Amino acid sequence: MSTSGLHGLHPDLKHAAKRSSRPIVFENVPTKLHLPLLAADKATELPNTKNVQGDIYMRFPKVYQAFIFFVISDVVAFKTALRSYQPTSTYDVTEALRTISKAKEDGSETDIVMTQIAFSRLGMNALGESGRTGDPRFDKGSMRQDKDVLGDKSDWDQPFESASTHGVVMVCAKGKATYAKGKEDIISLFKSSIQVLQTTDVVEGNVRPGEFKGHEHFGYLDSLSEPALRGLSHAYPGQIQVDPGVILMGYKGDPVFDNPGLPQRPEWTKCGSMMVFRKLEQDVLGFRDYLTKNGPSWREFTPVPDEVQPPLSDAEGAEFFGARIVGRWKSGTPLALAHFRDTKPPIGGDPEKTNDFDYVRDLPLSLQRQGPSDRYCPFTAHTRKTAPRNLNPYIDQKFLESAIIARSGIPYGSEVTDATKDEKRGLLFVCYQSSLDNGFYLQTTGFAGNDYFPVTSLVPQKHGQDPILGGPEPVSNVDGQGNISSEGQVTLVVKQDNTSSSYEVTGWAKKVDPSAKPPFEPQYWVTSRGGEYYFVPSISTLQTWATDGRTPTSATSGLDIMFLQDATGSLQPYVNQARDDIATICDTLIQSGNWSRDDLRIGLVTFRDHPPQDTTFVTQTYDFTTDISSIMQTLANLEAKGGGDGPEAQSDALAEALTANWRDGASKVVVLITDAPPHGIGEDQDKFPDGCPLQNDPVHIANQMANYGITLYVVACEPKLSGYYSTAHDFYAGIAQKTGGQLVGMSDVTALANLIIGSASQSIDTDALVNKYQDDIRSQAAANTSFADILTLYNTKFKNAGVQVNTCVVEDIYEKNDQGIQNQQVWLGAEKLDKDVVGKIQTVTKQRLKAKYRSTSGTAQSPKVQKQAISQDQVLRVVRQSLVRTTKS
User: Fold this and answer.
1) What confidence category does residue 475 fall into, taking pLDDT thresholds of 50, 70 and 90?
2) Which of UniProt's keywords are assigned here (predicted)?
3) Contact between 474 and 458 (Cβ < 8 Å)
4) Domain range list for the chain
């Protein structure tokens, strides 16, 4: 990526110059979201701005914002909606800022909806992503588990109290009408797949009006201490700068990335961030009264009252008291730059000055040499607690940088009037970081809620908690006697009332001055009403989750065929035949007139078994290609051997097929060629009776194939499959039927080409019917029409319309078997492979194959393709696939 404006703000953004987050504009941003890099480049790598969701460090420009908290009620439908969902990227925010800046220059108006999605740990599990993010606080479950240690002593709102949310969608805009429509569109997109239980689950905020714009409800200008990310954001003088990985996972500054000795995060976390949402209720009237009450005592809470000239009025004392609580004046001017009164005019509106300060610059030299000082700004001030600086030599600045968070909250609730004074209002707090423990959690528990932070001496000094975010535990006063000769560390042994228990209390003794009065009584005016930890994935990860690992493409037609070739033991004739037939298969399909050569792609997965049954390989995958000769060469070099026990690694091959680079608009066919079952379906002599060692579940995979329009055909190499194994036939017949495919017994290897051509041709025609009638069939189901009635309706409809389809006519080499048919229905209806399902499989006592096919000399007629009236079985496939597929083929 090349950049412009590295040493100055891009001219297209001159009207966005006062934002706390100002982007460096990258020209020629690559469209590929995730570009692999050499190891040597990783230390200096910057994220692709098109791959990072846009609120994380650039912050959405907004006036109105909704947080739509949801529970996923239909995973398949949710993933379908997720494919259509278009989150706003960081690149989009930059482009929007350019548009807004130009509109301001032209005197025109522009408004853009911006949106972002994030998931709780519970939500990621619901989506099927159970992998660890590498953030132990997030991966352990929920913020609810941390409620007590965060100091939240009051009741939480739902859904946070029950920790039930799966995720949250943020919707922002500047205009009320644009915002309302954007929110409605998002809810409409996901409505069939999520549950928004109550109106309280859509939490809304808005920027305060008029002169209060940018101020939170206590009245203080907000979002002034945001960090600038090195290489990604322009920094103002004095603005804290951090490495990108402090906020974004997978880059320099990420504590996991920076420590190669640790287990590294999975690749899908890269460009993601941990988001914290917290609903903070503010007692505005109580806070105002508190300042007014203590304002006249201003001399008592400054160490240097004689420096205040002229003396403060009571009203000025109240403003001064508030500034010492927050660390800034209401205008945003830091207390460190205006010790007793705000500047006139205030510098709080000038971003070139609002962060250009430190806490020692104005001190006498003798005090500067002593280290951190609270002469003008208390150590307990909110901004000093949460964004500390000047703590050398006790805390290194690099450590303080690592604890920085990027905040993006918004006020909620009405303005205070006589009519609304009893209404609830506060701040919808949002922050981002790559590590919760380094960021939000440390700031809340280690900084804001820690009486002894900041560290200002080798001897612990008790300063008190952050008056905004703190909430101290009750302190028990214990009267006791001891031989304390001086101030310093002391240990007391204290007996608990009415018990024999004793407690050892260690602390620092300080002589009580009976004449000293506390300058004010600490009180706390912010109450947490709950929140949650969320993972904000990269846009490429969202696409992966939406497609279950299949890379989306823009193709709208074509045929993709994936061969799964058993490469064990006696399969060499089938390997050779597949090699010899592929060119014929492709030529025949192209000659049908439906596709050009570029429309047809072939892929291949060869498989054997897991160690110790086979130590050569489990699977070898060759992705889709139009270069048929390369697949032929691969098969020419493939020697079928090994395998160990009877069952093989079919489950792993199916998993490879599911995650292949299928084109969204293509007809999709998988052809599994095998003479053995997978592990775990109940065969004797199975060395992995609990299933695939990698936990690839063939039943679940078949269900996923059905969802995505992938038709599975199983070529059963006979007589071995049915002669050696009691469960394989029924299993394969059941899972193939899930996808609209079928199990086909083959006793003559030379018939392979005709079988594949016929199966592909049949799939194409039934796919076309699914595309045409899926919406109507789903509407029937939504109206509570039974499956049997829908089937009857379409049997009649297709018969009356004279519908004909290409049909692969295959000689049936199997005996009819009632027990086998029941077993097939068990597998057809199963959701996963487990012992309960296997326990329902009946023993088949009759012969599987017809007599003439029980030896290798029996030869069936070669399959053929013929156009004929649609059969009842084919109508069943169309109806079933219309109901289970998440998209049209």
Assistant:
1) low
2) Oxidoreductase, Peroxidase
3) no
4) 2-225, 547-884
